[in-house]
Amino acid sequence: MTYKKYIVGLTGGIASGKTTVANLFAENGIELVDADVIAREVVEPDSKGLKAITEHFGTEILLPNGELDRAALRSQVFDNPQQRLWLNNLLHPMIRQTMLEQVNASTSAYVIMVVPLLFENHLNSLVTTTLVVDISPELQISRTMQRDGVSKQQVEHILASQMSRGQRLDKADHIIDNQGDINLLRKQVAHLHQLFLQQAAELSIKANN
């Protein structure tokens, strides 16, 4: 019997703790579909994605071992909106298609789809409900500087390119506050897990009647 999957779109700004939250849901047996992981898979050696990128930009965007040189590709598209648009038009449909295939293949009660740019790329249209992991911009800056070894200015530049905290929270169906300790985080995840289980069961019953 088929029914519409209950999909939770998990998002948040840089260094908000999306992976930590996703992994807590995974500990409850919930399958994850991660856009960042898929984005790397669609440009692996011998993939259609990498073949198309190489044909378009030339072999200078390849590392000696045949893998994609991400830094070289970034420099090609960074200040070139047309090239960036070309790249997005190539990769976004591939990523979207693979995400949906993984969702359809999942067997857990509901699925967590982890998408950093869920709202920016309008991928919230694919999910049943949205969950935003929220921290203050100050924490985002300090965590990113610590994690990635980048300057405050670089982090502020990234923040400026993403949707604002206010806009993201306005669009969220559910919000997890990740500014406290891990125990507080676990409590919030446990509460939402029960809610999503209940709503997924209701969706399943409705779809099968």
Automatic annotation (TrEMBL):
It is an enzyme of class 2 (transferase). Pathway: Cofactor biosynthesis; coenzyme A biosynthesis; CoA from (R)-pantothenate: step 5/5. Keywords: ATP-binding, Coenzyme A biosynthesis, Cytoplasm, Kinase, Nucleotide-binding, Transferase. ATP binds at A15, S16, G17, K18, T19, T20. It catalyses: 3'-dephospho-CoA + ATP = ADP + CoA + H(+). The keyword Transferase applies. SUPFAM superfamilies: P-loop containing nucleoside triphosphate hydrolases. Gene3D superfamilies: P-loop containing nucleotide triphosphate hydrolases. It holds the Pfam family CoaE. Its EC number is 2.7.1.24. GO terms for molecular function: kinase activity. InterPro entries: Depp_CoAkinase, P-loop_NTPase. It is found in: Cytoplasm. Transmembrane segments: none annotated. HAMAP family: Dephospho_CoA_kinase. NCBIfam families: dephospho-CoA kinase. Belongs to the CoaE family. Catalyzes the phosphorylation of the 3'-hydroxyl group of dephosphocoenzyme A to form coenzyme A. This is Dephospho-CoA kinase. The lineage of its organism: Bacteria, Pseudomonadati, Pseudomonadota, Gammaproteobacteria, Alteromonadales.
